[in-house]
Write a structure and sequence with these properties.
The complex is a heterodimer. Chain A is mainly α. Chain A is about 55% helix and about 5% strand. Chain A has one domain (about 5-155): 2-Layer Sandwich (Potassium Channel Kv1.1, Chain A), CATH 3.30.710. The chains are: A mainly alpha, B alpha/beta.
C-alpha cells in the first residue's frame, strides 16, 4: 500500500496501545514504528520487538524511515484483524530481546482466533510464534476421533465434498449455458 | 475443498505448507486418525513417511510402538481386509526395528516385493525344533564387507544373504561348534552368481559332531530352518548341501511348503536316502563348471573357490 493511502486511512495515529520499553537500552534511543490492521487502530511497536517478524524487519531495513516518517506512514496490514494484530504485537513486545521459551501457554484456545492467528503470523513471518501456533493446532487434534475433528473444524466429509463439487460444476455449466443463450438473444 | 453451508471450514483456510507443519507435530497414532478426516489430509499424510520405533508382525496382528504409544491391530483371520492396510503401512513407515515372527512371515512375504528402505533393523524369528522362536537380527550394516550399494540393500537376495549369514552365526557356531568359515563364502558366491528367481543357498547340514557316516540324520536345527524359512521364502528353489560320503557338494530342490503334507515336511530333511532317490541330484560341478576337479579334495576346491571369489569381488568396492 502506498504512503498516501496510509495518510488517508490513519492520518492521526490514535493512542498507542503498547507502551515503549526504553529501560533496556538507555544509551541508544530506540526507534519505533507503527502498524495497523483491518480496524485501522494504530499500534506503536519498537524496532527490537519487530525484529521477530522477518517481513516487517525486511521492510524497515529497506525503507530507512526516520521517526517522523514512520509515524506518518504506519505499516498497513489490511488482511489481519485488529485484535489478532494486537495479540501479535503483544507477543513481540513480551519476547523482545529474550530467548523464546520451548512452550507458550498464552495462545488463544478458541479455534477461530487460533486459525486467524496462524494465518497472520505466517504472513508476518514470525517463525517462533508460528511454531507455537502450529503445535497448538496439532494439540487440538489429540484425543479426538476423525468425526469430532471434522465437526470442530467444519471439514466436509468426502461425500459432501464430492456433492458440493458436482453442484458447483452443474451451476457453472448452467451459467455458461445461460450466458450463451443470452448472447444468442442479443445477436438476434 | 467445499465449505459446509453457512459454516467456515477452518482447515482449508490454511496454506499447504502450514498444514504440513501442523501434521508434522502429530504422533503416528494421530496421523493415522487424522488421515481419516478427509481426502486432503489423507493425501498429505500419505505423501510423507511415518516414523515408528518398533513394529511386530505376527499372524494374529501387527503391533506398532512409538515412544509411549502402542497400537495393536488384530487381524482375526480377516487377512483380505488387512492386507491393503499392511501394504500401505510398509510403503510409508520408517521403522527402527521390525520383528517378523515365524507365523507372520508369510504375511510379510506377501506384502513386500522389495524390502522397504525405511527399516533400520529387521528381526526375523525362526522356529526352533521345540517351537520356541529364535531371533535373527539383521542390521543393514553388519560388517564392513556386508555393506552393499543402496540398490542392492533392499533386494530380497540380499536379505537372504543376511539371513543365512546370521543363521550361521547364531545357530551353527554356538550350538554345533566352529564351522568352516569358508562355508559362508561359498553360499555368498553362489547367491551372487545365480539369478534372483533361482537363488541357491549352500549349507553344510550335518553336524560336525556327528562325523560317523552311518548317521544320515540331519541335525534338527537344519530341519527347522529348512522347513520354516527356506521353503516359505521366494527364490529358494535350489539348495546345495555337502555330501560327506563322497566329499561333494550336491544340489537338492527345495519345494514350496504347500507341496508337502503337514507330516511329510521334516521327514524329507531327515532321511537323506529319501531325497537321494526321489529328487534329482546334481553335483556341484554342474553348477560351477570346472571348479572342482575330478577327484575332489574339499580343501583344494575351497582354495580354488576363494581365489575365484577374490577375483569376482576385485572390482566391487563395497566388498573390500
Amino acid at each position: 500500500m502506498s504512503s498516501t493511502e496510509q495518510g488517508t486511512s490513519s492520518a492521526a495515529p490514535a493512542e498507542p496501545t503498547t507502551a515503549p520499553e526504553s529501560a533496556a537500552a538507555p544509551e541508544v534511543p530506540e526507534s519505533f514504528y507503527y502498524v495497523h490492521g483491518k480496524d485501522k487502530v494504530v499500534h506503536k511497536v519498537s524496532a527490537g520487538a519487530l525484529q521477530h517478524s522477518a517481513l516487517i524487519h525486511g521492510m524497515i531495513s529497506n525503507l530507512g524511515y526516520t521517526e517522523e516518517q514512520a509515524k506518518a506512514n504506519p505499516f498497513p496490514f489490511e488482511n489481519i484483524d485488529g485484535d489478532i494484530l494486537q495479540m501479535v504485537v503483544d507477543w513481540c513486545n513480551q519476547h523482545k530481546g529474550k530467548p523464546t521459551p520451548p512452550e507458550d501457554t498464552n495462545l488463544p484456545k478458541q479455534k477461530e482466533k487460533l486459525f486467524d492467528l496462524v494465518l497472520a503470523v505466517n504472513y508476518l513471518e514470525i517463525k517462533e510464534l508460528l511454531t507455537y501456533c502450529c503445535k497448538q493446532v496439532a494439540m487440538m487434534v489429540k484425543g479426538k476421533s476423525p468425526e469430532e475433528i471434522r465437526e470442530i473444524w467444519m471439514i466436509p466429509t468426502d461425500a459432501e465434498d464430492e456433492a458440493a463439487e458436482k453442484e458447483a460444476k452443474k451451476r457453472a455449466g448452467k451459467e455458461a449455458a445461460g450466458e450463451t443463450a443470452a448472447a444468442a438473444g442479443d445477436a438476434k | 475443498m467445499a465449505e459446509k453451508e453457512g459454516k467456515e471450514d477452518y482447515w482449508s483456510k490454511l496454506p499447504w505448507e502450514l498444514k504440513e507443519e501442523i501434521v508434522g507435530y502429530l504422533s503416528f497414532f494421530y496421523k493415522l486418525k487424522f488421515r481419516q478426516v478427509c481426502r486432503e489430509t489423507r493425501d498429505m499424510i500419505d505423501s510423507k513417511s511415518l516414523r515408528i520405533q518398533d513394529v511386530r508382525l505376527s499372524e494374529s496382528g501387527i503391533k506398532l510402538a512409538c515412544r509411549k504409544e502402542i497400537m495393536v491391530f488384530r487381524f482375526r483371520y480377516q487377512y483380505d481386509t488387512f492386507l491393503p492396510f499392511l501394504t500401505y503401512l510398509f510403503s510409508v513407515m520408517m521403522v527402527n526395528e521390525l520383528e517378523v515372527t515365524s507365523s507372520g512371515r508369510w504375511l510379510f512375504e506377501k506384502v513386500i516385493q522389495k524390502l522397504p528402505r525405511g527399516i533400520d533393523s529387521l528381526r526375523y524369528n525362526v522356529a526352533y525344533y521345540d517351537d520356541s522362536e529364535i531371533p535373527i537380527y539383521m542390521n543393514w550394516e553388519l560388517e564392513d564387507r556386508m555393506d552393499p550399494p543402496d540398490e542392492e540393500k533392499t533386494s530380497l537376495k540380499w536379505m537372504k544373504k543376511l539371513v543365512i549369514n546370521q543363521f550361521q552365526k547364531i545357530f551353527r557356531t554356538p550350538i554345533l561348534g566352529e564351522s568352516d568359515p569358508t562355508n559362508c563364502m561359498l553360499w555368498e558366491a553362489a547367491l551372487d552368481k545365480t539369478k534372483e528367481e533361482y537363488a541357491v543357498a549352500i549349507f553344510d547340514p550335518f553336524s560336525p559332531a556327528l562325523n560317523d557316516l552311518e548317521s544320515s540324520d540331519f541335525h534338527p536345527y537344519f530341519c527347522n530352518f529348512g522347513r520354516e524359512y527356506l521353503m516359505t521364502i521366494r527364490g529358494f528353489n535350489k539348495m546345495i548341501v555337502f555330501h560327506p560320503e563322497n566329499s561333494k557338494w550336491m544340489s537338492i530342490q527345495v519345494f514350496p511348503l504347500e507341496a508337502f503334507m503337514p507330516t511329510a515336511g521334516p521327514y524329507i530333511w531327515q532321511r537323506r536316502r529319501f531325497f537321494e532317490e526321489k529328487l534329482k541330484i546334481e553335483t556341484f560341478d554342474d553348477v560351477y563348471d570346472g571348479m572342482i576337479e575330478e577327484e575332489p579334495s574339499f580343501e583344494k576346491s575351497l582354495r580354488k573357490m576363494q581365489a575365484k571369489k577374490k577375483e569376482f569381488y576385485k572390482d566391487k568396492i563395497w566388498y573390500r
